[in-house]
Structure formats: structure tokens, C-alpha cells
## 1
Amino acid sequence: MNSATIITVFNHKGGVGKTTTAVNLAAGLCLGYGKRCLVVDMDPQANASRALLGIEATDAQQTMRDVLLNEGPVNRSIVDVVVKTSLPGLSVAVADLSLSEAELKLTSRMSRELVLRECLGPAISSFDFIVIDCAPSLGLLTLNGLAAAQEVVIPCETQFLSLRGLRYVLDVLNLVKARLNPAMRVLGVLPTKFYVLSKANNEALDCMRNLKQVHVFEAVVPRDVRAEEAPSHGRSLIEYAPESRAAAQYRKFAGEVIALCQG
Ligand SMILES: Nc1ncnc2c1ncn2[C@@H]1O[C@H](COP(=O)(O)OP(=O)(O)OP(=O)(O)O)[C@@H](O)[C@H]1O
Ligand SMILES: [Mg+2]
């Protein structure tokens, strides 16, 4: 039976391109390789849901909150919150702001970090890849995202401060691997928001490439105004502006991910 590879996109730092990476990795795997992909929105900001479905994503009757809490008389399965996007093969398990309530309520549950891992079960056989988009925090929702991961991708801006934060990200991942998820593997760091004319960006990229502890992807996502525009059109960048430089790098990135996962 088919079993999806679960990839979590993580960095505790905000605005580094996690959601853009999750959405375009999934879209790239669908478009380039014919894979069936599910993006699981684990951020109460619900940016992945909106980026893939447009503003109507917030009108969903049931969301990841209901799946994680499973409070009512009827069992809510992840398949109840999976919505197909306009790209064939690409779906999203939607979230909204109420997901932050789930974070609070899960605190008192037994094995509270492992709830998402269990919830993904019914979707595993329907997809080739499940890509989890995390919030910019190290709260319980994010720990659930990491505990469910087989692979982790770390988007990191090509900037000095982001690079410093990366050491902390790697420490956290080592801790999660030791305590929660021994099978988890860090696939690598994806340099994002690279501005080729910036000396500081180039220096940061060189430093990243010299890191010994972690693989750094060949793809480097440039700063690109098309990447900023895509979410408001409810489509991935790869569909919205396939000719853009950032879309090309996301396609390259998807190819690297698939090679690492299958290799
Ligand atoms: N390569 C890029 N070039 C220009 N803008 C980008 C690029 N990638 C992402 N952005 C924009 O930067 C902002 C933050 O990106 P994104 O939402 O992907 O980051 P994030 O890490 O998920 O943020 P958060 O921590 O809030 O969840 C968004 O407005 C997005 O459109
Ligand atoms: Mg995000």
C-alpha cells in the first residue's frame, strides 16, 4: 500500500519563507513529478490555506482545530478537512485562527506532542507527500509538526541574524530527534530571500554553505516580487508566475527533495 512521505517545514523565526516553501514544494512535486500532495496547515495564521485556496479558505466548516481536538460526538478525521486546490493532485488540510485554541487545549492531553502524527494516519495512503507548514514558534503545534515528520526542511534567509538563529534551530531539532522522533531526518537548509547584489546576502550564503552540521540545498530562492504577489491570487508561485526566477528555484528544490527522499 502507498505510504506518504511526511515533510515538515520548520524554522522558529518568522517571515523566512516557510509557507512559501511548503506551498511551492508541494506544487512543484505535483506539477513536476505527478505526485499527490497534501499541505497540512499547522499555523493559526492560516497562510498556507489562504495561499492555496484564496480568501474563502477561512469559510471552511471544519478545520485542523477540530481534527486535533476531536471533541464533538462525531469523530473528525483529517480527510474531513482536506480541500482540493485548483491544481490537480494538490490538496490542503485547512486551518483558521481557532487552531490557537487547539494549542491551549492540547496542553493537558496525554502524549500531547503526538496528536498530529496519529491524526495523519487516515491520509497516509491517499498521498505521496504530506507537507506540514509550521507557525513561527516552538509551541505545541510546532512540536506536533516535528513529531510527525519523517523529513525536515529549514528555510533560512540569507542574512546574518537568520544564520545565527539556524544554530538554535539545529539544536532544537536534535532535541526533538532525541526525545520525540528518533526516525526524523533533517533533509537540509533552503536559502531564501537572496538578493544577489547584496554583499551581506552573499556572505551569509557562503557561511551557510560552509556549515558542517547540515546539508544546504543547491537551490537558492531569490527575493522576487512575484513570490509576494502569488498568495493574494490563491495559487502557488509555481502556477502563478512559472517564468519567475523564484519559481525556477522552487522547481529545482522540489527535484532535490525528491532525489534525497528516494535516494
Ligand atoms: N522569495 C521571496 N521573495 C519575496 N518575497 C517573499 C519570498 N518568499 C516569501 N516572500 C514573502 O515574504 C513574506 C513571508 O513569507 P512566508 O509567509 O512564506 O514566510 P513564513 O516563514 O511562513 O512566515 P510566518 O513565520 O509568518 O509563518 C510573505 O509576504 C511572502 O509572500
Ligand atoms: Mg508561514
## 2
Amino acid sequence: MLKPKSSNIPKATRYQNAAIDYYMGLTNSSYLHYGYWEPLPTQGEELTLTRLRVAQESYAAKLLSFIPESIKTVLDVGCGIGGNAAYLCSRGLIVEGLAPDALQQERFIKNTNSQVPFYLTRFEDFHKSYSYDLILFSESSQYIAALDLAQGAARLLDSGGYLLLADMMRFDAEYQEGIFSNCHVASELQAALEQAGFKLIKTEDISTQVAPTIDLCVDNFRTFGLSTVKYIADVVAIALPPLYAIGRWAFKRWLEKPIAEGLAARAIFENHLCYSIQLWQLSKGD
Ligand SMILES: C[S@@+](CC[C@H](N)C(=O)[O-])C[C@H]1O[C@@H](n2cnc3c(N)ncnc32)[C@H](O)[C@@H]1O
């Protein structure tokens, strides 16, 4: 399937996709998730991309620690560019991945040495004649409606099968607009999963261990992103004053608010969201 046209994608998701692209360029890593900072950075310690890559490896290990020993086959939904899939394969699991993005497909194949099947599709459109032992949603649940996720996962699992979900979630249902607003309301996702026959086996809130990545992204955006934009604006103001005037108007009109919101991302996260890893099991039907 081709990459969905941007006009079909909700605005909040498009903001998130832009953030994913930015993140890909920034980290140069095979993971697209926030990572798991353990130990936490000390007060005043510089947050570096090298440290982030270590945190991302720790996050993959953290996911693995949630996977029951009986599991052999995994469907990695929203598999990104293959970091988790490669990690799980190296630990002996048989993995397949899917994502609706051709650019990610290319990188996924490279990062998994063509060893892991990739399906270029949305989860909502994915059908298979066989089932998996576990379905993984690593920071991809927020792109899929709760009912589609719960019912789709139930269809691809046998009774007793597992669903492992790791993502940001809104604990504040009143938070409905802005950069993180496409994340599920935790209670609504829980209701959809229970309705589809899932039972929560294990959960952990890792908000604290994820938050340094938000600080790192904001720091880099402020230091490199905004100072580069300011430099370009200064040069244009000297060389082409009328263009500068238009650019300044457009900046104020469309960019000022999202940028201010991006810079406040840590506070928005702490006030309205949490980051949770949840292992669910489909009822055994006995
Ligand atoms: C933040 S990335 C996470 C990637 C990867 N799981 C990781 O942890 O590094 C979100 C992923 O969800 C995918 N995605 C977005 N909408 C989706 C959908 N409807 N069905 C399946 N995957 C989707 C994106 O293409 C991307 O691969």
C-alpha cells in the first residue's frame, strides 16, 4: 500500500509524523521510541544523543522483560525502522513487522538484514490466515483507534495470546488539543481492550524514565533548530527585507503557537499524560 495521502491523516497525527521524521534525523538510530533512561540523568548532566541511544537499547530490553518465556512469534505493529524487531530477533524470537510508510520499510529491511518480513500496511487493513503468540505496539497504539486496536489484536491472537503495549497515554481526558492529543485516553483504551476479551497481566508506569528524551529533543530544537531559523531570518532581513516581512508575518500566523507548544512539551507531558507499558492476555475462553 502507498503511504496515505496527508489529507486523510488527522492533523494531530501529521504533527506526530513530522516529529518522527525530525526524531529520525536527530538520533540516527534504528529506534523511533523515547527510550528508557536507567539510571536517570543526574541534575545538570548533559543529555546527549549517545546517551539517548543507550536509553533506546535499554527500552528494547525493558520490552523484552515483559514478554513471557513461552512466546515464540511476535507481530511488531508500527515497527518503524526495525530497532525493536532486530533486538527481539537477536533474542531468539520470530518477528514480523508492519507499518504504513515506504521510507520506514526501506530502513526496516536494511536494519534487520532482510531477515524479518515487513508488511507495508496500516494495522486496520492487515489480515493474516495464521495467528501470533504476541502482538507488540511500541509507541504505535496512539495512531490506531482503540476499538480497531483491541478487536484487530484479538483477531490475530489465539485465546491465551498476548498483547504488549508501550506508549504515552492521556490520564487527563480533558486534554484534547495539541502535540500529544492523539494519544489514547488510558481509561478508554482499557475499556476497549477489556471489551475485546483482554485481561491486564502486568503494567508499569515509566514516565520518569522516558521524560529526559523530551528534554533532549526540546534542548536540541532550541539550540540548533531555533538558532538556525533565527540566523536565516537575520540574513534574509539584510538581503531581502520584503521577503523577511512576509516570512515574519507567516511565522507569527502559523508557527509561533506550535513552536511555543513544542518548547513546553515537558510540562504538557507531566500535566496531562503518562507513559505506560502494559501486558494484556486474551481470555483463555474456558
Ligand atoms: C513512534 S513510531 C514507533 C516505531 C517503533 N515501534 C519503535 O518503537 O521504534 C510509530 C509507528 O507507528 C506507525 N503507524 C502509524 N499509523 C499506523 C497504523 N495505522 N497502523 C500501523 N502502524 C502505524 C508509524 O508508521 C511508525 O512506524
